[in-house]
């Protein structure tokens, strides 16, 4: 356990210290990637408890993923010792569950209600068909609560019970929310109920990393924090501890045209003149791109661990890299397959994770729904394609919850995503729907596994790796586009933020690659590099690949 008290804030820089020791009241911390948000948040909680006589059980810290919650808990343990257990740390969903458990009867639920699992959901869906209201009633009859209801039911309960609101406000006097830029309407409502307008709500985030608007997140809540909460204090953290100076410079230039932060600044804390430039590889094909990734990983892990024998250090860090230091990031899941194959052929261990549940993707629900309509026949895979065509022809498709509309390109993406699953399920619609509900691919990432990590840009948020490959930096993938359709300005801005998130995951080495030809939507096409690369100073890149003559081996090694 670290010393609590006067030395507590010594491990923070000046602005982090200002944020961590700010007095009570609404507090907004606008902080770019790698500026130490988690470190600041945990130290603030420890500081409040140690210095301002705040009781740990008055603190509620909310994150967006279980993984982030575990990390926060772990760091709090280190700072506060056993009393850290009294801090309530969790995701929005676990918070909702706590409130429902404590008030089951008032919410009209039996004390022993259960969260519906995939089989429960599939069964209720199969019985209720398209009738969402009926679906909810079936779940209720079986003492089940759906995931979405973990938020909507507490909001409904608290909205109608001022006494209960007062009780919770009394209990959690200090509330902390990480990644506030990705809050959606229901989460926001819950926060407003739990925190008075002049309450001790500390929101941390980065509007330039808002990448979940397709799922209902609204960066507007972040941008109008000081209107929503009285006399809000604003602290900016600009010092980036994660990335080398060239990586950071490239990232800052990349976000500039869409930045939502006035006067966006990110100052590198790491100033090593020897830091390698950003590698930019122009691949002839997707296979060539995958080979490049494998070749480079081979050289990095083999070559550098060899050099570390004479205790070589780069940039103040040990040069011995292992597979777990490396991540390959991509825009669409379909891009993973060629890299997975190439890594497998080279016997390089790999783990793949997608943070997004399939059913959360725009378009997916609409297709599941359409599938049940009469008139579609053939195998499941054929029906998925057919459903996609039907939906894409309509200009806008209402989503299941009626909260918005799905764009034709979302539907086509969803068809691409669902087809492999549909193939695996043969003709079993029930199996297909239940797999869809679990999202087969949630949170399976082990940060300690000795393997290269493959993940989508969305899933990479909040993580950091010494070496990052961002593959498929092509027009059409970044920004994502379907043939014959143009993304609007807002969509391009969100894609650019996603690109920014990807670049800023890298600590020491970043490689950006693009292929000259790629098969998408069933046809091979010529590809241009992503326009997002155009705004980056060419001097920050070390270019290699097909546009340049093949380099002799020793030159290639030196580049890496
Ligand atoms: P993101 O927006 O990507 O989630 P973040 O702001 O949450 O980024 P962290 O992951 O908390 O950033 O920190 C980035 C890295 O910088 C971590 O490795 C952390 O240990 C380090 N770091 C943060 N603050 C300091 C500091 N004051 N001194 C040294 N290292 C620091
Ligand atoms: Mg973070």
UniProtKB/TrEMBL annotation:
Its EC number is 5.6.2.4. Keywords: ATP-binding, Helicase, Hydrolase, Isomerase, Nucleotide-binding. The chain holds residues 503 to 1062 of 1062 of the full protein. This is DNA 3'-5' helicase. ATP binds at residues 31-38. Residues 10-244 form the UvrD-like helicase ATP-binding domain. GO terms for biological process: recombinational repair. Residues 245-508 form the UvrD-like helicase C-terminal domain. GO terms for molecular function: 3'-5' DNA helicase activity; ATP binding; ATP hydrolysis activity; DNA binding. It catalyses: ATP + H2O = ADP + phosphate + H(+); Couples ATP hydrolysis with the unwinding of duplex DNA by translocating in the 3'-5' direction. One of its GO terms (cellular component) is cytosol. It is an enzyme of class 5 (isomerase).
